[in-house]
Write a structure and sequence with these properties.
Layout: H1 3-40, H2 43-47, H3 55-65, H4 75-84, H5 89-101, H6 104-114, H7 116-140, H8 163-166, H9 174-181, H10 195-231, H11 236-241, H12 245-255, H13 262-274, H14 279-291, H15 294-330, H16 332-345, H17 352-370, E1 375-376, E2 382-383
Antiparallel strand pairs: 1-2
Length: 389
């Protein structure tokens, strides 16, 4: 193998490892907070407050969706449920956008890789984008009763099976049905359960279901960031695309059809920033990438109708571009702060706590590959939470 190829592979591996180690403590913290949300925020608390069709319900849908750690596919059943319970198309669209665009896990990783400024701007931009998009959907689409919306199952395990919703069907998950009936094989713990039981159930959800669901995409994002860091020359983007709206449109063309969750998009954005992408263009990628992909758009047609889905996609495109342009035009200090953060973050080697956190995160990511993923319990359920023999 040529020496240059070996050097390139070594550089990619080193860059990817550095990003993984720097992200690990914040990723674990984000998963822990996600577990707390799962354990102590009742499912009905969200659904019961989004039953209106006015501007207030749109804003509330954006705010409630923002901290939830669901990707653009995992949010589909939850959005179908709030639509079934009477939420307007605008509120449903706002929830569909704000939930995958940001979350406690992605904000933690954003702080680690992009700095505190972007960690604040990203969730704020997500909420504003989702709210404006929801209002846009309401303004352009006359709402009809939601009886035709697909019915979402109430098991947390079913939050990661969007394919059946694309066909307008409930998820035929035996464990979901049995758990709803109360066999205890997973699902959300009762709010009357002891504190420790709810806490452990939330942690099991975060590290046993949520992390395996997004972990592969996060690792892919880390690897892609390493490839970009090692192979793309400095200021490559500025030299080829310049500044302004051109790189934003290029990023948007890639981000809309691409499946990338909010956490996985963060290391990619960090690598692109180092190579000359502006913070505004990076924000476009961070907003549009997690909010859209081919599968989500297909289901949006089912939940929102054709006009509602078209309004939803148009709103994401317009609002993401507007957010990126505003960031570059009116907040030039963010670019300097982000550049300084990126320039200094890689100079010092990660400390021992970061390496320990990386080892724990790697073990959590690898465990499902070696564990017996699906077992059967006495009631006939199958799933990772079913009792093991």
């Amino acid at each position: 193998m040529p020496h240059a190829v070996i050097e390139a592979i070594s550089a990619m591996a080193a860059a990817s490892l550095n990003v993984f180690v720097e992200s690990a403590p914040y990723m674990l913290f984000g998963m822990f907070v996600a577990g707390l949300l799962r354990a102590f925020v009742p499912e009905g608390f969200i659904f019961s407050r989004l039953g209106g069709r006015g501007p207030g319900s749109v804003l509330l849908a954006s705010l409630l969706g923002a901290p939830l750690p669901l990707c653009s596919c995992g949010v589909i059943p939850a959005a179908a449920e709030i639509r079934r319970r009477g939420a307007g198309r605008g509120a449903t669209a706002a929830f569909l956008i704000s939930t995958p665009e940001t979350g406690v896990d992605s904000v933690a990783v954003t702080y680690a890789l992009l700095g505190p400024a972007m960690a604040v701007i990203r969730p704020l931009a997500a909420v504003v984008t989702a709210t404006l998009a929801g209002l846009f959907v309401n303004a352009l689409d006359s709402d009809r009763p939601a009886a035709a919306a697909p019915q979402a199952p109430r098991s947390g395990r079913a939050l990661h099976a969007p394919a059946d919703f694309a066909a307008g069907l409930s998820t035929p998950d035996a464990c979901a049905n049995a758990c709803t009936a109360g066999c205890g094989c997973g699902g959300r713990p009762s709010q009357q359960a002891p504190l420790l039981v709810r806490l452990m159930a939330g942690i099991r959800y975060a590290f046993g279901e949520l992390l395996p669901d997004i972990g592969g995409w996060f690792v892919l994002g880390v690897v892609l960031s390493g490839i970009i860091s090692a192979l793309v020359p400095p200021d490559f983007i500025q030299a080829r695309l310049g500044s302004g709206i051109a790189p934003m449109l290029a990023v948007l063309a890639v981000a809309v059809p691409l499946y990338v969750c909010a956490t996985a998009s963060t290391p990619i954005a960090a690598a692109l920033l180092v190579k000359g992408l502006s913070p505004g263009a990076a924000l476009v990628f961070l907003l549009a990438g997690p909010a859209t992909n081919a599968a989500t758009l297909a289901v949006a047609v089912k939940i929102l109708g054709k006009r509602g889905a078209a309004s939803y996609l148009a709103a994401i495109v317009v609002c993401s571009l507007a957010a990126g342009l505003c960031l570059d035009a009116f907040f030039p200090g963010v670019a300097a702060k982000t550049a300084d953060f990126l320039a200094t973050s890689g100079k010092d080697a990660p400390g021992l706590p970061s390496y320990l956190a990386a080892a724990v995160l790697a073990a959590c990511l690898l465990w499902p590959l070696f564990a017996k993923r699906r077992t059967t319990c006495e009631c006939g359920c199958t799933g990772p939470d079913a009792p093991r023999p």
